Amino acid sequence: MDNFLALLEGFSVAMQPMYLLYALGGVLVGTAVGVLPGIGPAMTVALLMPITYSLDPTAAIIVFAGIYYGGMYGGSTTSILLNTPGESASIVTALEGNKMAKAGRGAAALATAAIGSFIAGTVATVLLSFVAPFVAEFAVQIGPTEYVALMIVAFLTVGALLGASVLRGLASLALGLFIALIGVDALTAQQRYTFGNPFLADGIDVVLVAVALFAVGEALYVASRLRHGPVKVIPVAGRWTSWMRKEDWKRSWKPWLRGTFIGFPVGTIPAGGADVATFLSYASERKLAKGERKKQFGKGAIEGVAGPESANNAAAAGVLVPLLTLGIPTTATAAMMLVAFQRYNIQPGPLLFEVEGALVWALIASLYVGNLMLLVLNLPLVGIWVKILQIPRPYLYSGILVFAAMGAFSVNFTPVDVFVLLVVGVLGFFMRRYGYPIAPMVVGLILGPIFEDQLRRSLAISQGDPVALVSTPIAATIYVILIVIFVLSFWLKKRQQAMESEVVEEAPLAVADRKEG
Amino acid sequence: MSAVVLGYVPNALGDAAAKAAVDEAHRRGASLVVVNTTRADRLVDPAYADDDDMSRLQETLQGTGVDFTVHHGTSRDTAAEDVLDAAERNSAELIVIGLRHRTPVGKLIMGSTAQSILLGARCNVLAVKA
């Protein structure tokens, strides 16, 4: 009951006109970047972070949450109308959605995607409202040893599972941990890896690295790789109110709910975020379809749009559970939101619900609001989203780079930061080029100092006995859960890859370059 | 033989321009050069005709009995530069384009193909209004 009251309290904050405007801005920007291939929510949050310093934490977090949810909606539009997924969680949607559009049913595909996203987003946010406080209650009981265990879970899952290759993920994580070490040691005040350079004594700002990797590196990479010629947009006929026929509703509602209940749990475990959930949902819809409808799969089955689109939004909400309760980001965008929390001196982690309850509940309430906005905005505004795709790419990239440089400069108002940005940005480009995921590096950088602090503290308590790290019951349980998550996640990944190769054989698909969402 | 260059876009305006270009080519006894190119620097380029559009246009043109060549595809240059190039190469006596209203902001940001052609052409330009 307490939680329900807290949620109402959150609504009273999120419904203030100013915050409603911020939420609106967030979902608009989010949808726009979701529509554009090569630009994702993680990059956008990174770019906006320096600009949002002047906002109060609640406003900034509401904007970021709007971007996060909006990105999930926007991706489906490009998938359906152009067969070019705007972000990785919409790849599956393109399979059936584009076929539907080609058959003149594009409007129904867009509608089922938007309504499904809304239902899934709302149901998953309800689930989040109930599950998160429960997890948080457990989380406050943990001490340094358990914290170390949690961090190891975060490192290993993010490092090993957020990319195609475990080894590269861990290498990227190690790089992040190393950069986190640069600067003055918090406990002994010794300088580490600063080479006597006063600029390095403060350490390298997380925001700087995040902007460099997600904005500069990604923009350079996408600019060098993504060269899609002009694609024909399939026109959408009719008024948007007449888009869903009675039969479409009948065929869609079950996949919507199934997608929700597949997506949410998958989102909460660090298995690679929303795209795994979409593949699972698609596979199950195809398996469950019978007779005539089964034959429709691959030729434009509405279930194949409704299910995955709900699953990706539900997963987006699921990702927030470990983020808000344990401070563990499981996707690139979640990592960026964690950076945002830290920026405002909000320590992500078990105490977040206790200490920053008002903020967290306002965030959750704004998710409900944002979802509703997205539903209302998305259907009538499809034309505008498609127009965004006419922007010449050089404009976009130069805009991103200028924005990134400006943001970097505004962190401390020193030109050195811009230099660091460029160096790390070029590094980020080569990491992307050679298949090293960049999210683990950012996660390592964020959680590294917390991890070090807790590790040294627990070793100090146990007087240097490492066995203490695994001997408490909760820590041991966490390690066991870690193993379970790993097995589960690898199984999911395997299923996804099997599905992917099967599907690609069936229908060669113009998949936009995969990016970390 | 003299030539008329048509800057084509796949919409009603482009078709009107095509019709005017055919009339001019007939009147002058000239051949027709159809230009439609894209720099492929954006995901959606509504001014670029796909293969279906082009074959439809070619069918229409064949019906008119005008001698024509088509310059269609991806190019490094802007559409305006390609039209002007084609005019120069064929020493055209007329360029035919469609002209539509643009907002000042749109023109500032995206530039105007029609304006570049009008100002850059060495021959007369016929601007068709749909």
From TrEMBL, chain A:
DUF112 domain residues: 20-442
Does the record bear NAD in its keywords?
A: no
What keywords would UniProt list here?
Answer: Membrane, Transmembrane, Transmembrane helix
What residues form the membrane-spanning segments? Answer: 20-39, 107-135, 147-164, 170-187, 199-223, 314-339, 351-375, 395-427, 471-492
Q: Which InterPro entries match?
A: DUF112_TM
Protein origin, superkingdom: Bacteria
Q: What is this protein called?
A: Putative tricarboxylic transport membrane protein
TrEMBL record, chain B:
InterPro entries named in the record = Rossmann-like_a/b/a_fold, Universal_stress_UspA, UspA
Q: Tell me where in this chain the UspA domain is found.
A: 11-129
Q: Which SUPFAM superfamilies match?
A: Adenine nucleotide alpha hydrolases-like (SSF52402)
The organism's place on the tree of life at top rank = Bacteria
The UniProt similarity line reads:
Belongs to the universal stress protein A family.
Concerning PANTHER family, the annotation shows: STRESS RESPONSE PROTEIN NHAX, UNIVERSAL STRESS PROTEIN UP12
What is the protein named? Answer: Nucleotide-binding universal stress protein, UspA family
The protein's organism comes out as Arthrobacter subterraneus
Q: What is the lineage of its organism?
A: Bacteria, Bacillati, Actinomycetota, Actinomycetes, Micrococcales
